[in-house]
Amino acid sequence: MKYLILLCLLCLMIEASSQVQITPSPLRTLEARVNDEGVEIGDFYSFADVKLTDVNQIVYVTQYIPQFTPNPDGLGSYELLDGEFFKLTMMDTALNKIYEWRSGVFNDSTLSPGLVQYIGQENDRIKLLGTGRNDSLALGGISFFEFTFDMSLNLLDEVWFNLSLPLDISIISSAIKNKEGNYVMTGFLTNPISTSLEDREVFYCEFTEEGTVLKLTSPSQDPPSSLWLNDNEAVQLDNGNYIVHPFYILDEDFNELAYYDDPRLILSGRIFPIDSTRFVYGGTGLAQVNNTIDGVHNFEALCVGNTNGEVDTIYYNSVQNINLQWMPGIKAISAIDTNHIYFATNRDGFFLSENTNVALHSVSINGTINWSYYFGGDASYTPIDIVTMPDGGCLVLVWKLSRDNPLEQWKSDIDYVRFDVDGNLYDLTTSLTDTNFKVLSALVYPNPTSYELYIEYGEQLKDIRIEMVNAAGIEVLSEKVIRQEAIDLRSLSSGIYFYRLFEGNDFIQSGKIVVEK
Predict the structure, then answer these.
(1) Per-residue pLDDT for 154 more than 70?
(2) What is the pLDDT at residue 235?
(3) Which residues are CB-contacts of 310 (< 8 A; sequence separation ≥ 6)?
């Protein structure tokens, strides 16, 4: 196999944006669900991406997990909802519910749809693919269903089948529809002699709507042990090639064209195609640096790849946090064009941390920051999807898990927020005219520079400190910033340096400084 890898060094990474904190949080609950007895129902996200239809309607699936619907009787959500395991919903772009369909119509112990893996529009039909239980099918394999709905979410057709594979599938990561109208599924195989996650093997499978397997293969390169369960996404580019993330570029017959890797990055399983040959994806990393303060340099990155296996990093963000072993990485990506790429990450914590924020960014493909916000902080927040809206803005969906509220402990909901293309906030439920944006940012200039550096910052910031390291990660400067006074760089030789700004112990922003003498 041909290896074509173009790796950007840290010294070439684009400066990360300063971020604006939105307070109070603009996040709103997508659906405040209760059952017929008034018991609150927790919404959990599905593995199927949210879709915007041709007539600008939003369709999505929410699923119900007993652990995320607390109630005093100890009943799980499945019992509370009379067998309803998932719900298909259609809304308009103002987030008004238009139609919904509930899987509880299959309230049968021998026939029940379960996890939804794919949702898509085909002409005037909505299609779902998922796994479930159908005792009428022959034994062996995994039971799949394909449901076809009209645009009012009336169920028109259902097809059940077992996928006959000579392999034992342990995890299904994702499923897409290709240009031929067949499904392409990725996942991991069960290792008969080891239960270790490190011994899993990736597979790709193409099959028809009726369940006939057309292609099945595994890559020649073993996946890294760092892969999470859903970090094996697939997309098809306009030229027919597949990007199976992480690491593999395939042609339409699953032949491997290139393999790409960056030893600094643990690649997170989100990909978004930009054009016929390019795509963006995210990752997180952990790199040791010679730093006596904390000794660990954590970063997350947004990368552009192409079908030759070449990789360029367009966004770089670093955080120093003694309680955070690594950054959780890019969780959601979407784009209008090469000038407006949206992506979202966790901030201030990891998955299931008690209180975290969501960081949302808009960048161009060359790394220029358009705008950057963060919000949340009162629960555990994880971004799950971004939908590009008709006006070019974005709708961000976030999984919220209440942990420190004793009245809602482990209560799960889907929240949302919407911005226009320029980063202006939409609020679709209540006025936010009194919302204050707390600006936590600073201007660092000139850049490039020769002998001195200035840092301007707002009145809200006090006690600012700057740290700088060289391209090898060695600290070369650490001092307090005094407003309107220059920072002396005469001791530094020509080269590329990275800075971090702190207010007390709180990280503010990071970036790159070029010194030219």
Answers:
(1) yes
(2) 87
(3) 4, 5, 6, 260
Tell me the average pLDDT of the chain.
76
pLDDT of residue 13: 34
Q: What angle do CA 330, 335, 337 make, to 5 degrees?
A: 140
Strands 234-236 and 242-244: antiparallel
Task: Using CB atoms within 10 Å of the CB of residue 478, give its burial: 0 to 12 exposed, 13 to 18 middle, 19+ buried.
Answer: middle
Tokens, residue 311: 């990789």
* Paired tokens of 184: 């392409």
Determine the 3-state secondary structure of 220 from DSSP. Answer: coil
Q: Which two tokens stand for residue 435?
A: 């919302």
Q: Where are the beta strands (DSSP E) in 55-192?
A: 58-63, 86-91, 97-102, 111-122, 125-134, 142-149, 155-163, 169-177, 183-189
Amino acid found at 472? A
Query: Tokens at residue 205, please?
Result: 């499978």
Torsional sign, CA 421, 45, 185, 330: positive
The strand pair at 436-440 and 369-388 is best described as unpaired
pLDDT of residue 10: 31
- Positive or negative CA dihedral for 321, 326, 328, 330? positive
How many helices (H) and strands (E) the chain has is answered by: 1, 40
Q: Which two tokens stand for residue 149?
A: 């709905």
User: Whose CA is closest to 272, among 263, 281, 264?
Assistant: 281
Q: Report residue 68's pLDDT band, with 50, 70 and 90 as the boundaries.
A: low
Summarize the confidence of residues 458-472 as an average pLDDT.
Answer: 80
d(CA 152, CA 134): 26
Residue type (1 letter), 128: L
Mean pLDDT of 225-234: 54
Sheet with 311-319, strands from edge to edge, namely: 265-273, 278-288, 296-306, 311-319
- What is the tens place of the pLDDT at every residue in 204-217? 899 999 999 999 88
Name the residue type at position 56.
N
pLDDT at 436: 39
Q: Check: CB of residue 260 under 8 Å from CB of residue 281.
A: no
**Angstrom distance (rounded) from CA 249 to CA 241:** 7
Which residue has tokens 């009336």?
154
What's the Cα-to-Cα distance from 355 to each of 89, 260, 377, 383, 405, rounded to whole Å? 29, 35, 5, 14, 11
Q: Which residues sit opposite 279 in a β-bridge?
A: 273, 305
Give the H/E segment covering residue 291. none
Instruction: Give me 294's structure tokens.
Output: 């904390």
Residue 209, CA distances (Å) to 177, 180, 214, 241, 393 in order: 10, 11, 11, 21, 34
Query: What token pair was written down for 413?
Result: 């909901």
Give pLDDT tens digits for 349-369: 655 666 788 889 998 888 888
* Per-residue pLDDT, 433: 33
Amino acid letter at 314?
A: I
Cα–Cα distance, 256 to 1 (Å, whole number): 7
CA distances from 151 to 51, 93, 389, 485 (A): 13, 15, 19, 63
In angstroms, rounded to a whole number, what is the distance separating the alpha carbons of residues 429 and 450?
51
